[in-house]
Structure formats: C-alpha cells, structure tokens
Amino acid sequence: MDIEFLASATKYKEDVAQMVYEEFVLKIGGTKSLNDVVNYFSNTNVDQFPITLIALDDEKCVGTVSIFENDLKQRQNYKPWLASLYTLPAHRSKGVGSQLITEVLKVVKGLGYEEIYLKTENASDYYRNRGWVYVETLIDANDESIDVFKHNLN
Questions:
Q1: What is each CA distance from 73 to 21, 81, 91, 94, 112, in whole angstroms?
Q2: Record's Pfam families (predicted)?
C-alpha cells in the first residue's frame, strides 16, 4: 500500500470526494453537493492546509484523511486537525487507517507543529487505543456530542 498526497495524485479527487460526501456530508444531513466536495478536494496542498492524503492499493484509492487548520469553530485555538479519516469497508481492519494516521503525524510534525487535534462522534475508543489523549466533550452545531482528542508529536 502506498500513501500519497492527493495534490500529487489528482486523478483520485473524485474518489476521495465521493467517500467524504457519503460519509461526512450525507450522513449528517449536510447541504454541500457532491460537486462542492469535488471542488474542495481539487484545491488541497502538500505543505499548507488543507492537506489530503490517500491510501492506494493496486492503484485504487481505498482510504483518505485530511489535515485542516481548524475543524471545530468552538475551538479556534486548537491547530491543526486530523479530519475525514475514511477507509472503504472492504479494506477495513487491514491497517489502512493506521497508516494514514501515521503519515498525517509525520506531515504535521514536518510542518513544525507539536500537537494535532481531532473530533469524533463515535470512534473515541479507536483513537484512545492509538495513544490519542482525550481533551473534552462538546456539543456541536448539530446538537451532537463530540469528543476532542489531541496527539503530541514530540
């Protein structure tokens, strides 16, 4: 499996957009269109936010993760954020997510940050078991309880 920057492998932007649209827009009743999401992922970068990484298995995009400057309006002082981690169902439990997270940590550390944050509605145990530290629980704009975690990069 290879982990690449989407900015360097733009032919996968529609695949990434479809994953993110289905998992993070439709499931929460978001208002963005699939075309909006494709346009967003057409403008990701390698060394400034937003950054998106993809997991390729035999040249098929099987997972994605992004790094945003901020992913929670209530916590503007927390920067940067791991966001939109997703692995295709047929490729789960094969280490795809772990490899994507490992690469995110390297990228963020390489950009000079000492910590990274994430928010999750339903995967707290997954992150806790991978060394992320619980910070707090908040209620988001959709009245859902979300847990915030951070990971120290030192």
A1: 20, 12, 32, 33, 23
A2: Acetyltransf_1
